[in-house]
Amino acid sequence: MISQVPGAEVVHACRLLFPAAAVIDTCFLETVAKKDLKTAFRKKALKTHPDRAKALGRSQEELKRLFEETTSAYHTLSLFFSGRSTRTATVKNEKPASPRPAPRRPARKRTTDHFYTGRLPTRELRLGEYLYYSGLISWKTLINAIVWQKNQRPRFGEIARQWNFLSDAEVYRVLSGKAWNEPFGEYARRRGLLSKYQQMAVSGRQKQLQPMIGEHFINEGLFTPAQVDMMVMRAKQHNRGVGHR
């Protein structure tokens, strides 16, 4: 159950991905399943993906901005629902305990941002997720970092098109046909548009050009390089621990 009133960021994300919803409140959020979110994101992404600029008759700059907003909204809601699942699991597994006074925190201005205060999820976490669930960065900081990293990475279809592996029409065919969570390269290969070698070459190039998310935290002055290295080690230790359960 969602016990808190949805913040402005969550409401804005819902209005972007679920424009038909009359009211965005806790009741609405309780009825949204992960598959609904995935379907809504896929539909919106197809209408705003920069690779479809020619087909849609719109500028790449405009579509890039809209696609970034769509991606940010999806990550915001994904994290919100992930937190919902974590809270539910914690309530089910924990034994009743005597009430204890809440720790005092410095007064903060009212904001839609927040810091996680629960236990670490018992699953593998990426660095950004580990920092968030450890209470070291806020929700908004995590979302900004994820969007930043995704925007810095060249798109698979863009690289494939530059290397003349795919035409504009084939890129559109892949974007229109693949499931929202299916990698572009896997779908293109399955449909016979790319060979295994071409898929691996483009994927390798994409990974080479993608910056590490820790770079964002360093650039923003949130952590030093040494602190990021230490957090990477701790995240790996956490993942090894949950992997043996």
TrEMBL record:
Residues 88-111 are annotated as: Disordered. Keywords: Stress response. The keyword Hydrolase does not apply. Residues 102-111 have a biased composition (Basic residues). CDD domains: DnaJ (cd06257). The keyword Methyltransferase does not apply. This is Heat shock protein DnaJ domain protein. The lineage of its organism: Bacteria, Pseudomonadati, Thermodesulfobacteriota, Desulfobacteria, Desulfobacterales.
